[in-house]
Specification:
The strands form two sheets. This protein has a seven-stranded parallel sheet with strand order 3-2-1-4-5-6-9, with helices on both faces. Helix 3 packs parallel to helix 4 and helix 4 runs parallel beside helix 5 (157-175). 40% of the residues lie in helices and 19% in strands. The protein is built from seven helices and nine strands; from the N terminus they run E-H-E-H-E-H-E-H-E-H-E-E-E-H-E-H. The protein has 246 residues and is of the alpha/beta class. The longest helix has 27 residues, at 105-131. Strand 2, helix 2 and strand 3 (57-61) form a beta-alpha-beta unit.
């Protein structure tokens, strides 16, 4: 599957899920932009991507919760490559802030700001550009905790963040209803993702645990499918069947 001549941006590309997405896009020929607050994160990312694909990577120092930084990043991408075709938003990882009733108001507000503001600023900065670009896509990577009946009480902000992301996707689809250029996707994940190759897991024993590169393989297929939809992956078996259908 070739994504040659396509320019992509993976917001959160230095994270566990994001690094696997970056690797997959680069291996399939896409130019992949990544942003982080310091260059050491990019150096760590490159260790997970085979060296022959490093020429497909580009890095910019930016705080994605800062609108000025995001606008500069957009200018950098367009100034360098003249286009942006696809964006994958994979920001926010596991965190334990404590049971909800024990949080101070400041801790709650700061936590929700850290978890959701980067998604809003990236969407605000790039969605209009993509909506004007033929055959483009914006892909939200979300977690299944917003659907859970029970969750680790110490990770109380994660189900709230997940639910907020479901709502952001609905708002995005409503805003760009009828747009023929940009496909809007949400890939909702219900399993643990570890920072190690998926080949190190026994598929028969690891239905709810995958390697960081497992999710990445879905992204090129979603890009080429160019269909706005929510895709849920509850287990490895469900993911494997979905991969065959895409």
């Amino acid at each position: 599957m070739s994504l040659k001549n396509l320019v992509t941006f993976v917001a959160g590309g230095c994270g566990i899920v994001g690094s696997g997405i970056v690797e997959s896009l680069a291996q399939n020929g896409a130019k992949v932009w990544v942003a982080a607050r310091n260059e050491s994160r990019f150096d760590e990312l490159k260790k997970t991507v085979p060296e022959q694909y490093h020429s497909n990577l580009a890095f910019h120092i930016a705080d994605l919760a800062n609108e000025t930084d995001c606008l500069r990043l957009k200018d950098k991408i367009l100034g360098t490559d003249g286009q942006l075709n696809h964006l994958v938003a994979s920001m926010g990882g596991w965190r334990t802030d404590g049971p909800l009733s024990t949080l101070t108001v400041d801790k709650y507000l700061n936590g929700m700001r850290e978890l959701t503001l980067p998604h809003f600023v990236v969407y605000k900065t790039f969605s209009k550009l993509l909506s004007e670009t033929p055959n483009s896509s914006y892909i939200f990577i979300t977690g299944g905790s917003g659907e859970a009946k029970f969750f680790d009480p110490k990770a109380s902000l994660l189900p709230i963040k997940a639910s907020a992301m479901y709502g952001m996707y609905v708002s995005a689809c409503s805003e760009y209803k009828g747009n023929k250029n940009m496909a809007l996707n949400e890939l909702r994940l219900f399993f643990w993702i570890r920072r190690k190759p998926d080949s190190s897991f026994d598929p028969k024993r690891s239905q709810f645990e995958v390697g960081h590169d497992y999710v990445g393989k879905f992204i090129p297929k979603i890009i080429q499918r160019h269909k706005s939809e929510v895709l849920r992956i509850q287990t490895r078996n469900v993911g494997d069947e979905l991969f065959k259908k895409l």
